[in-house]
């Protein structure tokens, strides 16, 4: 459906990953070997926390309905700013129209959210799910995607206090509504979520066949493995990236996130926890 990346670490020009990497996000918008669709040209989004902003600050967003490979503003922007945490997303529209309000990432206060995948049978579930969103948040849903409804449902269910718990309740609600509508596999996707300090990356689907998801190996480890790799000099020791598919072909540079898992990335490193794990997993 889409491709995305999320970076956390020392302040970096986002173009290093979005434009300049071997298999950058823009390259994946043209040719995505691991994606459900090869081309992801139905708009894009870029969200970032500016360098030097305080914890709890609101991130900035740039959305466009242009294909990412055809937007000079994206090149100008990502080469001109520094950010310690940013999201990038290229879209392959699976039904909802191509419009800026349907481009990821989505934002609420200091939180950003993006999704690759879909809610199967969303047309049947939409009324029940949107009516589950708190009435104070409902007017903030500006687009028509299942992803945005999922984000505001998670906010309703306590995202700001307990991100993993809220996402668990959100998926449970989706599956509950899906089951009531006769939808066998309602949830599919990978999700990135951040409050500006921590980055959570979820991989889960009801069918157990989720979209691909990887994160980078720690930079100090990579420097030990590849001491002559000049490309690594761009990144600080805390640099980490979560991606729909690897940004390069360097063996050992990326680790696959397992099914029914959330990867949690902070300045201290990363670890994995089970997410919505089933007894047969």
Describe this structure in words.
The chain is built from seven helices and 13 strands. The chain has helices at residues 15-18, 25-30, 72-80, 122-131, 146-156, 163-180, 219-225; strands at 2-12, 44-49, 60-64, 83-91, 106-108, 111-119, 187-194, 199-205, 214-216, 240-243, 254-256, 261-266, 269-274. The chain is of the alpha+beta class and 281 residues long. It has a single domain, classed as Glutamine Phosphoribosylpyrophosphate, subunit 1, domain 1 (4-Layer Sandwich), CATH 3.60.20. The relative contact order is 0.17. The strands form two sheets. The chain has a seven-stranded antiparallel β-sheet with strand order 3-2-4-1-10-9-11. Strands 5-6-7-8-12-13 form a six-stranded antiparallel β-sheet. The chain is globular and about 55 Å long. The protein is 23% helix and 28% strand.
Low-confidence stretches: none
Whole-number tally of structural domains: 1
How many DSSP H or I helices?
7
What composes the largest sheet? 7 strands, antiparallel
CATH class: Alpha Beta
Rg to the nearest angstrom? 18 Å
Helix and strand succession?
A: EHHEEHEEEHHHEEEHEEEE
Percentage of β-strand residues: 25-35%
Shape: globular
**Major sheet strand order:** 3-2-4-1-10-9-11
| Percent range of helical residues | 10-25%
Distance between the termini: 25 Å
- Helix vs. strand class: alpha+beta
How is the CATH topology named?
Glutamine Phosphoribosylpyrophosphate, subunit 1, domain 1
CATH architecture: 4-Layer Sandwich
Assigned CATH superfamily: Aminohydrolase, N-terminal nucleophile (Ntn) domain
Organism: Leifsonia shinshuensis
GO molecular function, one term: hydrolase activity
Domain Glutamine amidotransferase type-2: 2-281
Protein name: Glutamine amidotransferase
